[in-house]
Sequence to fold (594 residues):
Amino acid sequence: MTTTVAQAGNTGQMRRRPVAGRKLVDRLVKVSSWIAAWFGIFVMGFLVYEVIKRGIVAINWDFFTQPTPQDATMTSGGGMANAIVGTLVITLCAALMAIPTGFLGGVYLAEFGRNGRVATMVRMVANVIMGVPSIVVGVFAFGIIVKPVQHYSGFAGSVALAFIMLPVMARTTEDILNLVPNELRESGLAMGAPRWKVTLGVICRAARGGLITGATLAIVRVAGETAPLLFTALSSPYWMTGLFGPGGFFGGPVANLTKTMFDFSGSPYSYWVQLAWGGALVIIVAVLGMNILVRLLFQRGKEW
Amino acid sequence: MVGTTVTDQTSQQQTPTVVPPRLEVSEERRAGGDEDFESLPSQISVHNLDFFYGKEQALFANTIEIKKNRVTAVIGPSGCGKSTHIRTYNRIFNLYRDQKARGEIMMDGENILSSQTDLLELRRKVGMIFQKPSPFPMTVFDNVAYGLRQHYKLKRGELSDRVEHALKRSAIWDEVKHKLNEPGNALSGGQQQRLCIARAIASEPEVLLMDEPSSAIDPVATAKIEELVLELKSNYTIVIVTHNMQQAARVSDYTAFFFEGYIVEFGPTTQIFSNPVQKQTEEYITGRFG
Fold:
């Protein structure tokens, strides 16, 4: 090449770098990321396969209608019904406490606090709480609820779960509201509507798909927790008997799926172990099912 | 007919972090035109308006008269403060904590920059159309009814009459009359923008601010919006920011040329486009920069 560039210094002919090496690296990265991705999917598939294989034999009518067996000699009959009901009640109560509070907290962070000092602090605290091991949360709930009243209770379990959900819900809400473009906020305010009306009627409405998905995922996340229930709801071989009194939601230990699975899987009785696998199957199907369902329903969540 | 030319006069003592360009201060001068600028009633009188994004000053001593029932176009290169300027008229900038305006914007005998101004009432009087069509996530009907419900107590029949009227005035009724219960964002971009205009005019404002209303939509839809602007000016005072100089020439009665936060020149559109006083204005409208 006869370039006649008269500019300063190093503008002569450039020495080529070999291509082969770069091609090899390119291929290596592609293949290794492909392997890593499929390994993840394989592990997931393997897990689901094992749980289905071992759990499916435990699934029958009794499983969903009978309480956990109290007699170790039983090899049939008995189920997980009391634990399933307990888990539903505990999780639902936790959701009732954490979802509205978390939602409003998220609204504050995204719409009002923004980058203010208070919001920055709240956001940091929420992030820290999300990283706290769940068993620590269980001990915390034990300290503030179980210890003072001197007995375990389903409610204490709900408080522990709510404590885990709260920051998740707040941060999710904030992230989702931040996705709503500012033009929509300005358009709402430009109509002469007050801020709260624009926030709830326009912004949250635009983001409703994402908000519902976020709330559902927050619930699903805690539904499978075990550690926070160890010191709080404990477990029970009986049905929950209403709200108060020794067998009630506020009055005593409440059966739940995860703690029951924990107990049964470690027991020497093969029928109990089988029931534990059945419980695992139910949880996995419920959690996966909810995940897939909300994602399918609200995939088009960006309607604004 | 008077065209006023406003340049930097008083802002030097504000210690701006942006070094303002040196512009010649020209005398007020008479210009050709067919109406008497001075005797036309003003809807908005802006005097020495400064604007700050945090510590950075974006507008310098803006002074301008927005005449009632006229279309005023705001032109200038990107980042010259056009949008910033009209966003003070409804104080929408108040959404952001670090944005501050100083000076005087008189409307109906009040300085709307005063802390006593009722923003909800101000925004009822001053509607705004944004660059990007932004229908609310609700039906076409509810979109248009939003401001009506906000500001007036109406019986159901009257509400739907007014919604229909606003949609007709915005030249979109025929396209949406069978879609009133469908979501507003299911409409095309051009239709959405006219829906936003219907939403803004439904609650009967006095002023319509349009911030590049046709920059995100196609030429056919743009033509419709321009027709609409001409049609609406008999009832509303319109301030339109535009990047498109042909558009400014087509729709406006008065034009203000902004440059680096200053109103370099303001006058009748015919004069600005045929015989501008300032060299910068001439260079901009002839496409030599910007």
Summary: Chain A touches chain B through 23 residues (CB under 8 Å).
